[in-house]
TrEMBL record:
It comes from Lachnellula hyalina. GO terms for molecular function: oxidoreductase activity. This is Pyridoxal reductase-like protein. Keywords: Oxidoreductase. It comes from the Eukaryota.
Length: 566
């Protein structure tokens, strides 16, 4: 990629004619901060700034788009070395950063163009006759595969309009087909030489785009789905179940939101499917996903539809409206159809609705139309507050669930939501019950983490701020000590006790535990959450700590359930 000769020189960006002149000026002392702060620190500060005002995000995207346009490379660099065993050139990682930025700015088609260049150079490589998945480039190609998935998500977002999803232009169709053709050619090439096809997830995701031709999955992947890669011993299933609308579901769902970003790790389809199968065999048969969680729907759908016990595997997905849209019968039907195509099914077990702007009351109409669609078995909400949930219920719509955050640190559902759930017989599906991983043995007797450390994610920072408002690190240690003592009695972990405490609320149907399918799994640990019960003395010990907290301050600072996303 072509670079300016002076890497530290500022890039001149055009300023809108309507913008005041001061918008282009940066105070010299402020610029000193920008020029000298470590990159990770600068990123942390910027993320914090984005949380101050939604308009900052819009301006960041606009300026980033201008920067990407101003620095567009004139030529395509070489991504791989030549020789007996190709390796990645530094230019590939620069190129990857660029197309990921394009995705983030909503320029999905532009990102696909750059990815197509990578695939074309990949096709020109000459590989050794025998190459195992342990060799150096395999992990890189798994990441590139995940990037293809993300580019499809960016394209779908780019196609959204106020009247629904628009049709692609002729040029856009050409861009998509060019990438798809490259993936298909790569698949054929791999089959001809007897090697593993490295872009299975990306190809599957692209196939699900409207109007794209389907390609049969490789026999290798199908075989890995049908035949588990381990021996599962027969054992009694101790996982509790609950009635949720028309369905009977386990009280622990596996959450697939980690599919939304390669930052959480990447895996091949066969690795992912082996973990899916292990969870199902253990009794974890319910999965939570969304239309914007990368290829979660597609990968899950392909797995489930290939299983002999597919009817026993429960799919909870989402219909999320983040941008202004005019709700019509056609728009809602099209979205439901898209979900069904993605999960490879005729019926959605649970469709959860998220609506961004409460000022626009169309969320009631949307919920009515979803309820009227026979292809949706159960209708739920996601991150709705009590007031708006009540509005929907009082309009005569039947809602079975609301997915919200709930933990020993975040007690917001206990303030208003609980009474409404009991009154209307709505159940909560809870996430964040382990407070971003802070309610775990690993943090017992440990000092407060450095929130600016490289290993701290935005999720960590979010929950740490919540802990600070709730009572601080010292009080958290008292809570962890109490949970550890209770766990010792039952031979379970702090996380098990924290989850059990949430499940013991009568208005909670299930907790959602994040699952990094194909990367790591905690099946045995999660099962232990159902091996014991909390007695009155246990709950009383926990309550002693909670009484010292400022849980009401959390409610006051963050608002009712879901307010942090608005």
């Amino acid at each position: 990629m072509q670079r300016p000769s002076d890497q530290n020189a500022p890039v001149a960006l055009k300023v809108s004619e309507k913008s005041p002149a001061k918008a282009a000026h940066v105070n010299m002392m402020t610029d000193t901060i920008i020029a000298n702060m470590p990159l990770e620190g600068l990123r942390t500060v910027l993320r914090g700034l984005l949380g101050v005002d939604p308009k900052v995000t819009l301006k960041l995207n606009a300026l980033a788009t201008e920067y990407l346009a101003a620095t567009r490379p004139a030529t395509t660099p070489q991504f791989f070395t030549s020789g007996d065993l190709p390796t990645a050139c530094p230019a590939l990682f620069d190129w990857q950063q660029r197309y990921r930025c394009l995705m983030g700015c909503g320029m999905g088609f532009e990102s696909m163009k750059l990815l197509t260049e990578v695939i074309h150079q990949f096709l020109a490589l000459v590989w050794p006759e025998k190459m195992t998945t342990q060799e150096s480039l395999m992990d890189l190609f798994t990441i590139l595969d995940a990037d293809v998935v993300q580019s499809v998500t960016a394209v779908q977002k780019e196609l959204l309009t106020v009247t629904g999803t628009r049709e692609m232009t002729g040029e856009e169709v050409t861009i998509v087909h060019s990438l798809l053709d490259g993936l298909v050619a790569s698949k054929k090439q791999a089959e001809q030489v007897g090697q593993q096809f490295l872009f299975e997830r990306g190809l599957l995701r692209m196939q699900k785009m409207e109007g794209m031709p389907t390609v049969t999955s490789s026999q290798q992947v199908l075989q890995s789905i049908i035949t588990p890669g381990y021996i599962q011993e027969a054992r009694p299933n101790i996982i509790e179940h609950v009635k949720l609308g028309r369905s009977l579901v386990p009280r622990m769902f596996m959450g697939l939101w980690q599919f939304s970003s390669p930052a959480w790790g990447t895996a091949t389809v066969s690795q992912i499917n082996k973990h899916f199968r292990k969870h199902v065999d253990a009794g974890f048969t319910a999965y939570d996903m969304a239309d914007h969680y990368g290829d979660a729907e597609v990968t899950f759908g392909q797995f489930r539809s290939s299983q002999p016990d597919a009817a026993n595997i429960f799919c909870a997905t989402k219909y999320c409206v983040f941008e202004p849209v005019t709700i019509t019968v056609e728009v809602v039907k099209a979205s439901i159809t898209e979900r069904l195509v993605s999960i490879n099914a005729d019926v959605i077990d649970l469709l959860q609705l998220h609506w961004q702007s409460y000022e626009d009351k169309q969320y009631i109409r949307m919920t009515q139309l979803v309820e009227q669609d026979a292809r949706v078995l159960n209708v739920g909400l996601c991150n709705f507050d009590t007031q708006r949930m009540n509005e929907i219920l009082e309009s005569g719509i039947h809602i079975v669930s609301n997915q919200v955050q709930f933990s020993l640190i975040d007690l917001r559902p206990t303030f208003k939501m609980a009474d409404s759930c009991r009154k209307h017989e709505v159940k909560l599906l809870t996430y964040g019950s382990l407070c971003g991983g802070f309610l775990a043995d690993k943090w017992l007797n440990k000092p407060a983490p450095n929130m600016y450390g490289a290993d701290m994610t935005p999720s960590h920072r979010k929950y740490y701020e919540m802990i600070t408002i709730w009572g601080g690190w010292t009080l958290l240690q008292r809570l962890l000590t109490t949970l550890f003592s209770i766990g010792e009695k039952y031979n379970v972990s702090i996380s098990n006790v924290a989850t059990r405490w949430v499940l013991d609320h009568d208005y909670v149907a299930a907790t959602i535990i994040g699952a990094r399918m194909g990367i790591s799994e905690h099946v045995e640990e999660n099962i232990k959450g159902f091996s014991f019960r909390l007695y009155e003395e246990d709950r009383a010990a926990i309550q002693v700590v909670l009484d010292q907290s400022r849980s009401a301050d959390v409610f006051e600072a963050m608002g009712d359930c879901g307010a942090e996303y608005r």
